[in-house]
Amino acid sequence: MSQVKRKPGQYWDKSANPIIVKGGGYHCTNISPGCIHCWAETTNLRFHNRIPYDGTRVEFELDQAILDKVIRRKTRTIYFMCDLMDYLHGRVPDALIWDLFKFMAENPQHIYLILTKRADRFCNLIPTIRSKLVNRLFHVKLGLTVCNQVEANEKIPMVLPFIDWLSLEPMLGAIDLEGGGRCWLSDAGLRIPWIVIGGETGPGARPMHPEWVRSVRDQCLDAGVPFFFKNCGAWKPILLGEVSENRGLDIFKGLHFISPDGTLKKDPGPDKHDELLKRNCWPIQRRRGKDYYLDGRIYNEVPTWN
Questions:
Q1: Does residue 42 sit within a domain?
Q2: What is the DSSP code string of 226-276?
Q3: For the chain, does the N or the C end have fewer beta carbons within 10 angstroms?
């Protein structure tokens, strides 16, 4: 594995969004609890075609100008593809997805990262594409994104033989990748090669309990799987010592506690802190900026890609 030499929280060099709505802009449909505060929808509403990510009927096409920019770039680049929508959205034609993968196959000078939440369509289409383009997609890294244990249990077994990475973002609950008969990290013959975790940002962002992240980090360390922590999201964990040593100070205005099940509680006052801490309710606070640290260090491991 290698350490990313980019700014904290970023494992790609550039993003490229060649799948667009005819006429411009982007579109998707919310299908997961992780979609509720979609940053891509907010971006599209502010800067592009202003179509909400709902059931609006649209038609898609490939933006050749975007593809041409990728071709012209001479420096080997890690591209995050289609980060403003899901390339496996139900209204994106199979033929267009085929064209996108053919383009990536024909341009192996770069590495392409591409994510989906739609495990069912992935299973119906991507294995066929890979079989037809055999040995031509080694530089295309297919990923799945889930936000909680329910989604993990449902979707990971469907795509496990085919994915190169798993994104837990936004992480909205504890996720066990190894317990309960699951061997999604430790099975040497069939395991997830890379894990990325991130919290939720933006208006209405939901908090992430630090123990959820630590658990997955430790599972990765035990299995020898690279672990990348993007950021805590809009809610930042407060060090336990800060709470115990500075109770009542203004720096803790707006302090909340997140319970292990994700319930957010307002600060009941210093006299209740010890009780909450004993129940593993972690002190957090909504702050500007991003916190890339977990337990005082940055985790930015990625697989070694040739």
A1: no
A2: -EEE----SEEEPPHHHHHHSTT-GGGTT-EEE-TT--EEE---GGGHHHH
A3: C
My answer on whether 205 and 297 are in the same domain is yes
Backbone angles phi, psi at 236, to 5 degrees: -105, 130
Residue 69 binned pLDDT confidence (cut-offs 50, 70, 90): very high
**Residue 93 token pair:** 């034609």
21, two tokens: 């709505």
Average pLDDT, the chain: 92
- Helix segments in the chain, DSSP class H: 39-47, 64-72, 94-106, 119-132, 149-159, 210-223, 240-245, 273-278
**Whether 261 and 248 share a structural domain:** yes
Residue 216's contacts (CB-CB under 8 Å, 6 or more residues apart) are 168, 175, 177, 195, 197, 227
On whether residue 182 sits in a domain, the answer given is yes
Note the pTM of the prediction, 2 decimals. 0.94
* Contact yes or no for 214/247 (Cβ under 8 A): no
